[in-house]
Amino acid sequence: MGKLTDISYIKPLLGRFGFTFSKQLGQNFLIDESVCPRMAEECGAKDCGVIEIGPGVGVLTKELSSVAKKVVAIELDKRLEPVLETTLADCDNVKVVMGDAMKMDIAELIKTEFDGMDVVICANLPYYITSPLIMSLLEKRVPVKAITVMVQLEAAERICAECGTRECGAVTVAVRAYSNPQMLFRVNRDSFLPAPNVDSAVIRLDIKDTPDIGKTTPRHFTKTVRAAFSQRRKQLANSLSSGLGIGKADAVSALENAGIKANARAEQLSLDDFKRLTDTLFEEDV
């Protein structure tokens, strides 16, 4: 079998199965042979179970299979099923599951496929699913040690930003509350087929044993953060009022009780600010 990063091999292989790239699914396959071995090494896959989301033609999958105990690759595009059957035919520790990772019970999948193993997630994610998938995995407390994903560079910088900076968004706060993020390395746009219009980066989120969300529940913390950033150009009192369906006076009171200025904006708040604000807003449930 030829190299899965070799365009002269991959294009005829895809053509044999009538596959064409889908812009709707954000399909860009890796053709840089240096990227996937590094991802497999730095994602913590060694001697662990790995869930890969979006294997494409299996470039990263094969690298993961060489270091992990077992790999379960979740692929949404049914057109790639026969391709993966061909490219992964020699990988005895890989199982391909066709389906939508956003709709799957990942915790149940881990229980079924990786009994007794430590598990990590590794993926090359299309832009449109990056934030929703990461938020879902974190908020559902999926039992994994780390989440390593390749995303567009701008998204990587936002996800790994510090709370209280201009780059901060709702996903930034969630990531900081549930994990310790780090930027691993950048990936040039020419590393993909077809080449996207932007560069990418690989980031790793090491999951915290206990969420750093204050005294209240994950649901309340998420509601507060999303409401705060729902109208990020507006002052927090207005965003909270609209996002939580409470009166502006109640929003102002909650901000003051949490020691936050009523005219502040969401991007100016630290993680501790969000924790105090959530505890104040939902103090009856604490």
Can you walk me through this structure?
- The protein has 12 helices and 9 strands.
- It is an alpha/beta fold and 286 residues long.
- It has 2 domains: 201 residues, Vaccinia Virus protein VP39 (Rossmann fold, 3-Layer(aba) Sandwich); 68 residues, rRNA adenine dimethylase, C-terminal domain (Helicase, Ruva Protein, domain 3), CATH 1.10.8.100.
- A 7-stranded mixed β-sheet has the order 4-3-2-5-6-9-7, sandwiched between helices. Strands 1-8 form a two-stranded antiparallel sheet.
- The longest helix is centred in the C-terminal third of the chain and has 12 residues.
- The radius of gyration is 21 Å and the shape is elongated.
- The mean pLDDT is 92.
